[in-house]
Sequence to fold (93 residues):
Amino acid sequence: MYAVFKFSKSAKEIDALYRDDVVARQTLIKRDGSALGLDDAIYIVVEGSEEAINRAKELAKEFLLNDSDAKDVYKKIKDEEESASMGMGALFG
Fold:
């Protein structure tokens, strides 16, 4: 399971996700939107248990992306990670 959140660069609410005991133990991926070819926002993906996803949604519900936008951002992030891992494989393979 995952949830994707979109924050402005100055948003203080980002820290709430990293400070929460349940959410912080999950996989948190933080990316600059401009690096993904999107906008000037900060995107955070929370991957983990249903309990943690629900907790993250409680903490930052006003920043939660709808399903369609979340899938697009998630795919861009995963494609970027895959591309980076393939590059490292070629370098050290």
